[in-house]
Design goal:
With 67 residues, the chain is an all-alpha fold. It has a domain of 42 residues. The chain is 70% helix and 0% strand. It is built from three helices and no strands. The longest helix is centred in the middle third of the chain and has 30 residues.
Length: 67
Amino acid sequence: MSTPVAPPLTNVQLELLKLFAIGVSDEEVLEIRRILARYFMEKAVTGATEIWKEKGYTTEQLLNEPS
């Protein structure tokens, strides 16, 4: 039986490993998770807003869409 080969770590994973190698408290880990979540949420909202503008959508159209 062969052992599955794991893909190499991403650049983000490598940076996080470096950070955690110095030791981080549970409170700091929670704060890092919040920061990352906020970062990716903001990227998603920005991307959605750009698409919304490109397509010319309006709030009125959204509110009048049948459910």
